[in-house]
Predict the structure.
Amino acid sequence: MITRIWHGWTLPENADTYEKLLRSEILPGIAQKGIPGYRGAHLLRRELTDEVEFITVMWFDSLDSVRNFMGEDYAVAYVPESARKVLDRFDERSQHYDMRLTPEQTG
């Protein structure tokens, strides 16, 4: 299993708009693509002093599954134009990790 992690930051006044966009359009749109090996995503949000941080954690069966999503340069961030309009800054590239242990395995 591959975990794809990405960070984006927005101004506090844009945070709710961005979260709504993620929940209603971006993440459902990815799921609707029917990407073989895509297992879903988690969305994390953290309020900071002058900005709000978002982290998406996506799950794929393999790096080939990630390539089915993004192509050969699979680390490029997936940031639609609608998201770019409300984000202040974001990771240009996502990080990918092999999942080595799950909550079910720890007990």
Summary: The longest strand covers residues 38-47. The chain is about 35% helix and 30% strand. The chain has a mean pLDDT of 96.
